[in-house]
Amino acid sequence: SSIRADLDALFGTSLQSSGSPSSADKNILIGIVTTSGYIKSSFETALALAGDLLRALQADSTFRANFNQIYSLTVPAQGVPSSSNVAGLFSIVSSAGYDLTALQASVGSLSALVSAFQSDATLRLSIDLLFGTSLPASGNPSSADTATLNGIIQAQGYDLDTFKVAVVAAASLYSDAQSSTQLRTDLNKIENLSLAATGAPSSSDRGALFAIVGTVSYSKSAYEALITAVASLYADAQSSSSVASFRGRRLNAGAAG
Question: Could you say which of 3, 93, 191, 253 is the most buried, measured as most Cβ atoms within 10 Å of its Cβ?
Answer without folding.
Answer: 93
